[in-house]
Design goal:
Blueprint lengths: L2 H20 L2 H4 L13 H13 L1 H14 L18 H12 L18 H14 L1
Helix pairs in contact: 1-4, 3-4
Length: about 130
């Protein structure tokens, strides 16, 4: 194997290992450090689980770090749930309860999209925030 290929492979391996060690709740949510217990955040658990898929050691380390400092738990004892039948009216009620404002769904500027995961929803909100 040529020296270039060896160096490229070593660099790729180092990058993958570092990203897996850093890809945990401690990095995503540093404000959660110190929590003692609660419901496990599925986003953090999945991110740690990816480390188990590629290499066992980084995944085990990520889980150990997150459980040790409490970053794997949802804040304030909350539960991660997806409402089974979200309608514009039920969403409007939740928004009104949280913000005191209602959404007029008949406006031209309102876009209704169905997203398959929370991470896609967060990405879409960031895109909209950057556009506005």
């Amino acid at each position: 194997m040529s020296t270039f290929k060896q160096k490229s492979l070593a660099l790729l391996l180092a990058g993958v290992l570092s990203s897996q060690l850093a890809g945990c709740g401690t990095v995503f949510y540093p404000e959660r450090k110190g929590q003692q217990s609660g419901s496990i955040d599925p986003v953090v658990a999945i991110a740690n689980g990816v480390g188990l898929l590629f290499f066992i050691l980084p995944g085990v380390i990520a889980f150990a770090v997150d459980f040790n400092n409490g970053a794997i738990y949802l804040p304030g004892g909350k539960r991660a749930e997806l409402a089974p039948n979200v309608t514009p009216d039920s969403l409007n009620e939740h928004l009104y309860a949280s913000t005191g404002q209602r959404v007029n769904w008949q406006q031209d500027a309102v876009q209704v999209e169905t997203l398959s995961s929370l991470s896609l929803a967060q990405q879409r909100l960031l895109q909209l925030d950057n556009q506005g």
